Amino acid sequence: MKIGFVSDSLGKLSFEAMLDQAVALGVSGVEVNTGGWSPAPHVDLMELRQSAEARRRFVRAFEQRDLEIIALNVNGNPLHPVDTRQGQDLEETIRLAGDLGIGTICTMSGLPEGQEGDRLPNWVVSSWPPEGQVAKEWQLRERLLPYWERILRMAPDHGITRIALELHGGQWAYNVPNFLRLREALDPMIGANLDPSHMFWMGADPIAAIDALGDAIFHVHAKDAGFNEARRGVTSNLENGPLGLPSARAWSYLTLGYGHDTLWWRQFCYRLRMVGYDGWLSIEHEDPLLDAVEGLERSVALLREVMPVALGGFNQMDI
């Protein structure tokens, strides 16, 4: 496994300063945000698409620092019924990845409206009232499958071999069963970007999810979450407190080790290895209270301590 981070983790730094900080942290690569919900502070997506010289400068900046471009990340809602820019960002990111020779895109499944004519996405997470299930099936049949079938026809033309969907709240494929249902209906080019922080706050077990997903795990975001029990006792995990104010929330995204200890992260990494995952652990710093550089330093140190590095193997001749 290798350690990197998501570029928006250092969104206040310039592109060059962000890469210099990656070198100082001793990571192996950076996952670059290109749009969607992100303002993409480190790239001008259209300039890179239109200018071969801009692309050469972009790649050279990584090569000069002996860093890898892990993937392009365009997390957002490409199926928003009104904000079509998010879907356009995904398509332009796929084209840019082809220009750069990058084979992996990180994005999300998308969440459409609940019926024709709605202007807002509709996230169905309850079995009752029954019209929610009607909306969920309509979303899959009328929006997700046609959209992703088109994207999967387009992606190979640009050298994309893997599209990693983040299992994230507010998306149709927010949990393992929904993700697997979508993948089975589409193509094994669709895989999972497993971020344990989202599973924590939604009440799932990331380690159980590893077993259920197996080789469908294409990418891993390393991010922690913790709970404010006094708040959670009266709001549940489903609440709308401000993200930047943990004291007013039931849960918050935290620096690695601040929500779950080193033993938990050791078991998480070991379980990933058990199902054959030997890819990136890409840190996504969204802790509202800890400085980004400090949070990345602490997260890198924890991952170095817990992650398997060299491939091992049991030899029966050793018995």
TrEMBL record:
Gene3D superfamilies attached to this UniProt entry: Divalent-metal-dependent TIM barrel enzymes
Source species, domain of life: Bacteria
A Pfam family per the record: AP_endonuc_2
Membrane-spanning ranges: none
SUPFAM superfamilies xref list: Xylose isomerase-like
Domain Xylose isomerase-like TIM barrel: from-to ranges: 19-305
Protein name: Xylose isomerase-like TIM barrel domain-containing protein
Species the sequence originates in: Asaia bogorensis NBRC 16594
This protein's encoding gene: yfiH
